[in-house]
Amino acid sequence: MYQPSSNPLRNFVGIVALICCIATVVPSSAVAQDGMSGGGEENIVHWAYGSFLGTGWYRVSADRKAFVLRIPPRWTYRQSGMDDEGNRQIGIEFRFPLTLGLAQIDDLGGIINQENFTTASFTPGIELEIPVTEKWLLRPYLRVGWGKELDGGESAWIYEGGIKSRYVLPIKKGDWGLLGAVQYAGYKPNVGASSDMLNLMVGIETRQPLGQFSFRDNPLYLEWQVTYNRLSDPASFRRRGDPNIEIHDFWEGALAVSMGDKPFRIFGMNFDRFGLAYQISSDNRYRAIKINLRSPFTN
What we know:
By secondary structure, the chain is mainly beta. 7% of the residues lie in helices and 56% in strands. The termini are close together. Mean pLDDT is 78; it is low at 1-44, 105-114 and 239-243.
């Protein structure tokens, strides 16, 4: 789990530096082929869904790509737990995600500065962790915020909520979890119609030891997950004046390295894991590569 440092400014700057460094070293060709486009047209997912989609690279057209940077500070007020007598303690976590939309990746020249960012949104919220049993955890959450196009264009209220589930499977080798979620996200712009969508997610994840590999005398583990997401209403990818391109579902596969329950500590911050996730829709029209720092259950 990501844990903020005692210095909020250092925490914020460190996250930006870390993710921006990754953005400058990963080649732009790693973005999806014909991802959010139809026949090469310049379509783009609405920026208000950036916080829901998370940090990643999204193909917009043959010569223009979009990068969503989600900076995820959070504060764990209380950890969840259950004692031997079955008494529960509900965990409480406050979140303060700042999401930036970055365009024209090919023109950056290895430099990311404020002029490259085209949208920004801030959606604070609260997340609870409820131990139903020793093997079953639930995480209801709610986030509400506001965002704006930085060129003085559209602004919007943004909202997201839902409940996530993780059940420990009775498999002896490794740590296996059955995942599920019901998530609702939407936005209300200052001009034009509102939009929302309901996402149903199921999946599985596991943690397996990596033999003799270690990091700073801590054993390393391979974390992998596969999830399927079904949207009740299709998500629209568009540009102004063009017909929408819609997707109804997508698969996600992810690989990462972790130190088990002990987080990596970089720039004074803690991260569960480091890896990449790949998303693809069933009709192959949507593809994306994302940074994988957490389990879908705690993300």
